[in-house]
Amino acid sequence: MDKLFEFVVPKLPDIVACLCPNFKKKVTLQRKIRLLKIRKDEIDKKIQNAGKNLRREVEVWRNDVENIKNEFEKWEQVEKSSRFYHVFKRQELAEQIQRMIEEVTELVDQSKFPGGPFLEVDESIDRLLLIPRPNGQAFEQNFNDIWTSLMDANVVSIGIYGMGGVGKTTLARHVHDKLKESLRHVYWVTVSQEFSIYKLQTDIARELNLTIARENDEGKRAAKLFQEFKKMERFVLILDDVWERIDAEKIGIPSKMDGSKLVITSRSEDVCHRMCCKNIIKVNTLSEQEALDLFLKTLDCGEPSLEVKEICKKMVNRCGGLPLAIITLAGSMRGVIDIHEWKDASEGLKESCLGRADMKDEVLPILLYSYHRLRDTRLKSCFLNCSLYPEDFRISREELIEHFMSEELMERRLSWEAEFNQGHAILNQLVRACLLETDSDGRLKMHDLIREMAIGITKDNPPRYMVKAGLHLEELPEEQEWTEDLDKVSLMCNSIEEISPGTSPKCPSLSTLILRENPLRLIADCFFTQMCGLRTLDLSKTEIESLPNSISDLVKLNALVLTGCFQLVSVPSLEKLKVLKHLSLKDTSIEEVPQGMESLTNLKSLSLLCSTLEMIPTGTLHRLTHLQQLEWPDHIDVPIEEVETLKQLAVLNCRLNSKHDLNRLINARRIDKPLCFYNIRVGTRGIYTRIELESQLKILCFTEDVRMESSLDTYENKLPRDIKDLSFSGSGLSGCLLDEFPTLSSARNLKECTIEREDKIECIMRLEEEQQSSGVPFQSLERLELEWLPNFIGLFKWEAVAAPLPPGTFSCLRRLSIYKCGKIKKVFPQSLVHNFHNLEHLAVEVCAQMEEIIEDDKNEGADITLPRLKRFYLKHLPQVKSICKGKMICDSITSISLSGNGSGLSGCLFPTLSSARNLKKCTIKREDKIECIMRLEEEQQSSGVPFQSLERLKLEWLPNFIGLFKWEAVAAPLPPGTFSCLRRLSIYKCGKIKKVFPQSLVHNFHNLEHLAVEVCAQMEEIIEDDKNEGADITLPRLKRFSLDDLPQVKSICKGKMICDSIENISLRGSGLSVCLLDKFPTLSSARNLEECTVVREDKIECIMRLEEEQQSSGVPFQSLERLELEWLPNFIGLFKWEAVAAPLPPGTFSCLRRLSIYECGKIKKVFPQSLVHDFHNLEHFAVHNCAQMEEIIEDDKNEGADIALPRLKRFCLTNMPQVKSICKGKMICYSIQYIRLGGIKNIKEFPLYLPLLDDGQLSHPPSLPTIRIDREEKEWWESLKWPHHNAKNVLQRLVEFELDVECITDSDASESGEEEENQC
């Protein structure tokens, strides 16, 4: 029995498992149910005692717990009623137990509630409202864009994307919170990185308070969710952190239901597109100021010291505007007080921002996940290669793609074009994944932290990189850093001048070495000897003169890049480099091709664009049969026979000798594959010019001395079928362009055409029935430039019987420019206007015989419509009689410029402008007949709003111009909105204008920022008092106000002129009288005024009055930095004291840096000693030619106190015969850099304060290099008295005696002083 017991007991679990196969699972389920009940009891007890509102997820959890408990109890009852099951029943039971175990486990995990079970605020306020709203223009713009999309019934889905940590979730949360204020059904679900349909359905159901836990079938779960959503009239569902496409229907989300909106956030633009988001918004990094504001706000330490703030700026810059990094970094510095700790932290960030523990834990994982989501290893390799460039380096797409090609990082394709397209596809994927950024020029860069992450990946994982680019290194890294497992090394953009003998890193695995953009002159021959695996060597833009011979032994070298090595004259033999595929000698100084070039039979890319190259030996190119990309300079002749043999050629940048050679090349490429890109000049041998081959160019240019083949010749003038840009410059083109090149009638890709300096050409195409082509000439042409064509009569030449243009001709033309075409009389007829309906830019300039821009060939005087015309320029057309007979309707017009002795403009400007909503800029010059911009009389008033969007109006040299408006018998008011956007109004040399606009129309000009009226002989009043009320004039946004040479002007306006935004005032002969502040009382509170110039004003006496009863409550001239006063015969001083003088309001002139007074006849003092403190920021102080000046700084207190001007740098006094002293006390100027004196012989003492050295001896001010004095006043200088007996000796060595100091103007003194300052 014992033996039987010993045998059975160990086997008992297996026996039980056999008889009751679900026993173990049942026990597990019971144990987990007990644990779940305990957790629920604990939470119920908290709820009972707390009396607070529960979070929504807690309520959902409690319901789910009750449901699973009920289900378990029912299961137990069924299980007890029958002990034995059929095999299929047992299987079903096992699946049911397993599902319940998983659900219970999930509910136990959810019971932790990290944020606690209760809301801190009322249930009606969502928890996300606790997140502070970010500041910044970009945030507000993005928020408004999303909100506009949400309010748009046509937009059902919105995508928000950007790099990790940029603030997508924060932005979406604030949108969520705003929606909650007015919409009941707003739901937020975070999509996990390990996405599954089942889990997302569960999460959405929990938000909806819907129970679907019992249902396993995903389709049925989706149906329940769909029905729940359909019960709602309107809802918004926000899915945060989406990593891949989600099929809304499979989840159960209605995609096209009225009132439904789906918002997703993702790091990938691709995901947004694949989910068919109607509007897609990118969240960019913060600007420098916004980043600093966020850092300081997170730091939360009040206003930091200047030193700490400067460190903060440096730390913020290392974060690259990434909010997550800024918040994390600022949080780690919160509470740090010691300046040494701040400096230490800043120094640590120089090497690595992500190296800090907090950044490594919170920021790095988020960035890394974007990298790991690149599932293609080639895509990862291309991304990591982008980190070889310096921080913030802008890289052209073409350069990166060429780099990928030379490194062989991409999949091999059959053609160069296919590889080029693949490169663009890879870069686009990286941009859409927010791992690369695109600037406004289309160049790419890596965000600083993304680059740092990439460098970190390559430091710790193979293939290993060493990247020390842009670090200002003067020497190579230490020997121990050149490890044997290095794969790529980038030392570009440093200051390395030589690689000294004996330097030979042992790097057998090194495949890429980049030394470009270093002032490198010498490389030791042994440097490359232990780099036997090197495949890419980039020495471009270095100062190397000759390459070491050891390069000849780099037999695995795939790419040798020497672009921009202007000093390079010697390249060793390349004969052994059999696998070399890419060789660039562009912009080097070699005179002959390297030895062994003919052996490079695997070469795919060759650039020989160098001005010093004397020849390419015959037969060299013939052997390079794999060439796909080829460039040679214009001064080199290459036999066309050699080019014809290059069957794989895809990119060509060169000059061909003749049209005959071009025809042969075109014929050869029609047999083989056509060229992908080309920039070909056709003409005689000329001087070398550097021609860059940019991406996707298809350019053909005919230059001097090209013989055009006539119809009698064997060869037809051929053009590539896919040509995009065609130009002729002195090529001998004659007659009609389309006759010379009939293939243009079917050139569907031609976008640009330029014809210049062609003496014989007459027209672009003939219009006669028998010669009409069956094709559509110029159907895709967008730009046509015609310049210096003396015999050009027009675009079209009509023969005896004219034929209409083929439909579509010129239909894409956007820009037409005609310049110096001597015989043209019209641009095109009214009957062909519809062919030019896409024209955006029309310019006709310096055409001596032009009579009419658009000819009325039908004699109907019909209106002309150019619906897309934006810019219209006419200049120097002396014979032109009209623009067109009818009205010219161009509602898209943004800029008009009419200039020069007749443009056909007379009387009033175009009536069509009454509805031109987009017109931003209008310039009218040298038009003798124009009188006004618009008439004001009721019967002629337009129903539109003229000039409603005009921002800039410039009127110059208009001898008969009487004003903006011409009033007839009965004047009518301006339509509301006329000139309402005008920001800049400039009137110059308009002889008959007497007023700018009346006071009654001032409100129409409320957005005016710049008003300039100059040299108008009959101008009487700037703003006319047409109501005779003397009312004040308010121009709230006026920043710059300039009046110059208006001899008849009596006043600016009758009332006061209020312009609180004023920044710059210039008054020159404007009729200003007595006191500036009286005329412009607004200056007493003008916080933005920085510059004020008053010149040749005969009546002005002072800048401001000082008397108590007239003192303003504001602070006049509080921001003024520059004050220029010149040629003011009655000017008595800055201030005019009345019977009772009042002090200056504190802050007056406190920012003044430059004060210049010249030819002011009655001024006797500049300012009193009692007001010196108001001028403590003065840097430049100059007084010249003031005949009655007695004392520069008056001693009004009779104390003889010292005068301190601590920031004064330049001090100039000349030609003041009555001046007796500069000031009574000493003049203390520690910052003085320049002194100029002359014509002040009555001054007996020079009061400059001289500092004492440690030994008690006097010293001249350390910043003062020279004192300049008129040579004729040497005796006066010698006679001066000094406050200290040794002062004269100390200053004597600084004195330079010059000629005619009195004649030097203030501007000269300023320039000399600035030059002197720069030398210091």
Automatic annotation (TrEMBL):
<keyword id="KW-0433">Leucine-rich repeat</keyword>
<feature type="domain" description="Disease resistance protein At4g27190-like leucine-rich repeats">
    <location>
        <begin position="806"/>
        <end position="886"/>
    </location>
</feature>
<dbReference type="Pfam" id="PF23247">
    <property type="entry name" value="LRR_RPS2"/>
</dbReference>
<dbReference type="InterPro" id="IPR050905">
    <property type="entry name" value="Plant_NBS-LRR"/>
</dbReference>
<feature type="coiled-coil region">
    <location>
        <begin position="51"/>
        <end position="110"/>
    </location>
</feature>
<dbReference type="InterPro" id="IPR032675">
    <property type="entry name" value="LRR_dom_sf"/>
</dbReference>
<keyword id="KW-0175">Coiled coil</keyword>
<dbReference type="Pfam" id="PF23559">
    <property type="entry name" value="WHD_DRP"/>
</dbReference>
<keyword id="KW-0677">Repeat</keyword>
<dbReference type="InterPro" id="IPR057135">
    <property type="entry name" value="At4g27190-like_LRR"/>
</dbReference>
<dbReference type="InterPro" id="IPR058922">
    <property type="entry name" value="WHD_DRP"/>
</dbReference>
<dbReference type="InterPro" id="IPR001611">
    <property type="entry name" value="Leu-rich_rpt"/>
</dbReference>
<feature type="domain" description="Disease resistance protein At4g27190-like leucine-rich repeats">
    <location>
        <begin position="975"/>
        <end position="1055"/>
    </location>
</feature>
<dbReference type="Pfam" id="PF00931">
    <property type="entry name" value="NB-ARC"/>
</dbReference>
<dbReference type="GO" id="GO:0051607">
    <property type="term" value="P:defense response to virus"/>
</dbReference>
<keyword id="KW-0067">ATP-binding</keyword>
<dbReference type="InterPro" id="IPR042197">
    <property type="entry name" value="Apaf_helical"/>
</dbReference>
<keyword id="KW-0611">Plant defense</keyword>
<feature type="domain" description="Disease resistance protein At4g27190-like leucine-rich repeats">
    <location>
        <begin position="1145"/>
        <end position="1225"/>
    </location>
</feature>
<dbReference type="GO" id="GO:0043531">
    <property type="term" value="F:ADP binding"/>
</dbReference>
<dbReference type="InterPro" id="IPR036388">
    <property type="entry name" value="WH-like_DNA-bd_sf"/>
</dbReference>
<dbReference type="InterPro" id="IPR002182">
    <property type="entry name" value="NB-ARC"/>
</dbReference>
<dbReference type="Pfam" id="PF13855">
    <property type="entry name" value="LRR_8"/>
</dbReference>
<protein>
    <submittedName>
        <fullName>Probable disease resistance At5g63020</fullName>
    </submittedName>
</protein>
<feature type="domain" description="Disease resistance protein winged helix">
    <location>
        <begin position="388"/>
        <end position="454"/>
    </location>
</feature>
<dbReference type="GO" id="GO:0005524">
    <property type="term" value="F:ATP binding"/>
</dbReference>
<feature type="domain" description="NB-ARC">
    <location>
        <begin position="140"/>
        <end position="297"/>
    </location>
</feature>
<comment type="similarity">
    <text>Belongs to the disease resistance NB-LRR family.</text>
</comment>
<keyword id="KW-0547">Nucleotide-binding</keyword>
<dbReference type="InterPro" id="IPR027417">
    <property type="entry name" value="P-loop_NTPase"/>
</dbReference>
